[in-house]
Structure formats: C-alpha cells, structure tokens
Prior knowledge:
Elements: H1 15-38, H2 40-48, H3 55-84, H4 87-104, H5 113-135, H6 138-141, H7 147-178, H8 183-208, H9 217-222, H10 224-237, H11 243-274, H12 278-306, H13 308-328, H14 332-360, H15 366-394, H16 399-405, H17 407-417, H18 422-432
Amino acid sequence: MALFPHDALNPGVRKREVFGWAMYDFANSGYTTVVITAVFAAYFVGGIAGKAPWATFAWTAALSVSYAIVMLTMPSIGAYADLRAAKKRLLVLVTAGCVASTAALALAGPGSVLLAMLLVIVSNTFYSYGESLTAAFLPELARPDAMGKVSGWGWAYGYFGGMLALGICLAYVLWAQGQGIAADRFVPVTMLLTALIYGAAALVTFRLLRERAQPNPQALQQGGLRASLRQLHATFRQARRYRDFMWLLACLVCYQGGVAVAITLAAIYAEQVIGFQQQETMVLIFVLNFAAAGGAFAWGYLQDRIGHKPALSLTLVGWVATCVIAAVTTTKGGFWWAAAIAGLCMGSSQSSGRAMVGMFAPRRQSAEFFGLWSFAVRLASIIGPLTYGAITWATGGNQRTAILSTSVLFLAGLVLLLKVDVQRGREAALESDVPLPREWAPA
C-alpha cells in the first residue's frame, strides 16, 4: 500500500498541489513553536515582564484578545471567501501581515510590555486567519473517506516545519549563550529567523495551491460583505440541520482549550515549575513536535480505519493522562513522559478535529464552516490559557493546580463528543451541497 495513495485525493487533484497545501502547515508552525510555545512566551514572562506576578496572566490576556478578534471576524471572512472565491487571495494578505508583525517582535525588549502585547495580538490574529483559510482547502483536496489521512499529512508536515524553525533558533541560541550574549539580544534574532522561514515556505503554497471555487454572482452584485453576512446568518438559522457540526464545535471548545494550554504555557511550566533551563526547554519542545508529527501522520490513517469519533476519543483520554502526570511529577524525567504523551495527542487531536470539520462542511461553504471551526478553536484558546492564568494567580502561583484543572476540559470534550453522529453530520453536508464544479468531475 502506498504511503501517500493518490486515490485519497479528489479527481483532478495532483499530489504536488497537496504538497503545496501542506507547505503552509510547514510554514506557519514555526510561528506557534518559536513565538507562542518555546521562546517568546518564556522570554515575555521572564525577560520583558521581569517575572512579575501578573506576567503569565498578561501573556494569556494578549493571546485572548487576538482570539477574541478572530472569533468576531473569521466566520464572516470565511463566508466572504466562499462567495467571492477569495481563499487564496486572502491567505496571501494575512500571511504577509503575520510575517511582518512576527519580525517586528524583534523590537520588544525588557520593560516594553505593551509593545510586546500589541505585536503578539496582531501577529497571532493574522496567524489564526491563515490557519483557518488554508484548512478550508481540505474538502477540495481530499476524498471524504480519506479526510483523516490527508489532514494528518498536512499537520505532520507542519510539525516538521516547527522543528526546522526551532532547530535553527536553538542552534543560534546555544551559540549566542556560548558567546555570553544576553537573551534580550538573541531572542530578537530568533523572531527574525522565524518570520523569514514562514514567508519563504509560504511562497511554495502560493505557487502550487489552486483556488477551485467559483465566485457567487449574487455576491458580486450585492457586495461581498453583505452577502457573506447573509450567508452566515442563514447557516445559523439552519443550526438544527447541522446539529452534529454544532456538537462538534462545542466539543472543540472544550478540548482545544486544553490543547491551547499545552501550546502556550508548556515552556513557562517547564521552566518555572520543573526547573528547565531555556535550552532544555527548546529541546523539550523540539522532541514534543517530533512526537506530534508522528501522532498526526499515523493517527490520520487510524482515523480513516476505525472512524473519526473513536480516534478523537482516544486522544482525549491521552490528554487527561498528560495533565495528571504533569501535575504530580517533580522530576524532569517525569515531565518528559508527560511531554511525550502530549506530543502524540497534540498532533492526532488537532488533525482529527480538522478532518471531522471537513466531513461536516458543505463544499460550497467550506471556508465558512472552517471559519466557525476557527471561532470554536479561538474561543477555546481564550478559555483554556486564561483560566490557567487566573487559577495560577488566584493560588499564589500554583501552576500544578492549574495544569490538573485543565484535565476537566478534556473530560468535558469526551462527554460532548458522545452527542456527535458522524454519518448524520456527513449526510447533512451532502444535502446542502451543489453539484461538483466541472474541474472536479471525473475525467
């Protein structure tokens, strides 16, 4: 059996195009790995904010503001992209915005808390737009019965992009520390490196990925914004038809809140609670990304074999175990076990969720439905880290209590997943679909 079977793709889709699509996951993963997880997050708390009692809360607050912006705007942007066939054009614009604002993070130094928070808000907002828009191409590329594996290809490739960016930054940091260079001088360079890798890799996506959708004549006549808001309103009015998609969104809000804690606070927890040094943290995140790549890739095949719902359920059980181990361990070795499980679960749970959204999204509304997916993920990204930060603050800095409380989010996700009927959700999507465009029809 071929590792990347061509029959996993829709008629007319070439493997090089899927490679181009996966390259965007490769491109943007460096941002989350270096900026949000491994380097800038810990530098913000320890260097920019000087380890103030409110520092972790300020970091989570900045991320929460960006997620709130995305929640309020991405669903209508998605509907606009569908009606105007503008997914790729918008993807180019938001990528440029994220690359520029990531590079500008190099300007943030000790004491410049407000500047750092502003640039994190801007860069993370653009990053989130790009993640949603590129995900909306998935139903165009993958057959319904192969959605899991194709999503896994992209997500696994993305983690390798994160490892490349982090590896380059780690090599530079180790060299800089060996030269006696302080963090306020070497961290800005890592921001420039991350922005460069993001922009360069995204060029491959823009070259190879096609926009197959056709503009809606009504949108062209009435104006894109008005038509997109009307379409979004119609989707919400038909929520009963898409009830399995809505239950999935509720499930996503819960478990992605826990995933967001791992992504945004793993470095902070490792350094402040377990006692990792910065270079040790970067190695930890590097290995976590390697495990996540393997989890995303392998789990995609398992997901298509055993079903979307059982596959996602297993990852949530693994997340609960991760939270418990991280909360009770007092050694670096014990935390490495938690990180290894988290890596496997991170890639598989995120890829599984994206594939399920692709199953439930009518093809003519893919960007809109993935915009609603982005709404749920960003709401989760507010609830998870902000709750973690608030619990840490309220308990006088007890992050062990905060990480243990995160397991409740994964348990709630498991309960809500029970309400999802995958077959019924897929049938609702097919009932809403229009015939395939000519270029998608079999030859």
